[in-house]
Amino acid sequence: MSQVLSHQQLKEIAEEFGTPVYVYHAERITEQYKKLTDAFAKTDTRFFYACKALTNVNILKHIKSIGASVDCSSINEVKLAVLAGFAPSNILYTSNGIDFAEIEEAVKEGVHINIDSLHNLEKFGKKYGHSYPVGIRLRPNILAGGNLKISTGHDKSKFGIPVDQLDNILSLVKQYDIFIRNLHIHTGSEIKDVDVFVKGIEVLFDIIPQFNELESIDLGGGFKVPYKKHDYETDIHLLAQKVGEAFANHPNPNRKHLQVWFEPGKFMVSECGYLITGVNVLKETNATVFAGVNSGFNHLIRPMFYDAYHHIENISNPDGEEKKYSIVGNICETDTFAWDRKLPEIRENDLLVFYNAGAYGFEMSSNFNSRYKPAEVLVKDGKAQLIRKRDVFEDLLRNQVIG
Ligand code: LLP
Fold first, then answer.
1. 358 touches ligand 1 (CB under 6 Å)
2. Is the pLDDT of residue 252 over 70?
3. pTM exceeds 0.70
4. How remote is the CA of residue 5 from the centroid of ligand 1, in Å?
5. Which domains, from first to last, does the chain contain?
């Protein structure tokens, strides 16, 4: 049984820190990481937590303490990882559409880098030649992922260098004697079917013989987690088995040992997170009964942006009579979290909790409507600790230049 925070614990946190508040459960992250390392015990694998999902430095420190490495998607994430104490050799920067200056900064930090455009690869070759081992982010032309907005490997995606441009890659590698140590692909998020990863490995196996200094292949992230009861979770054990079989069936022609890298984001932190909100208003209308909470897409945008389902519980009245409610926010836009969802009777000031709020929750939040970003709390060893203060009015003005 997976660990969850009880209603009682969540109510106490709401009482102590106020709402809206994001709550993360450290032991749940550890549990997810262990699932991965246990399943892949027989393969030489490394897991780089894709920290774009949740970057609070206290979370990064916890991730470091359990032995995982970290994958970054901006130079600032690299700097946060350094601040959290990760050694450069445990930090990966998988870039996308960035300025070469950022790559130069990443080189100064000494971290692993995956380059995602021919232009940056050429600049890299010119400047560093063979001196700095580097990875290439490839676009494998595979369509996968929960929906198009979170699919990144298909043939119309901006991400990576299309594999069909292999000749261009090879001529740059040759011309500048670039040390290619890693080949990367990431096909999308919420991938149910483990065969997608196998397809990706097959794409890589076709081209591996062209890179004789390769040390690893990197299959990105994208493992699906359940968002509702009986929802699907990527079968990590089956994945480990199939990755093992793929290697056995395609013996590496260079006879070199290749480590397998993954970059899980959601899988590591989605389920550790809860967003606790308070009910401001109830509105009975002909269409539905609205329960308006003190939050909105400024705090959790996934339902509106991706039509994502987030389980909601009324922790103030769990045994109340079930009725249908539409849960909405207080933003001046249509910020519907759920339409006609059955929930125990909701009253003003009740606490509604959104589950699976750890990944891409706080991280995608904003100050839209000049509202404050929520506080963040980490529960570890049974203790709840504030890890980010709720915004205050001065935060809204911090960078404004008032004439
Ligand atoms: N590696 C790379 C290069 C990525 O682009 C991503 C996610 C990951 C790893 C981690 O993927 P994950 O394991 O979290 O699925 N905001 C969206 C998800 C966007 C993912 C973008 N890239 C959402 O809330 O569903």
1. no
2. no
3. yes
4. 25
5. 40-264 (3.20.20.10), 271-397 (2.40.37.10)
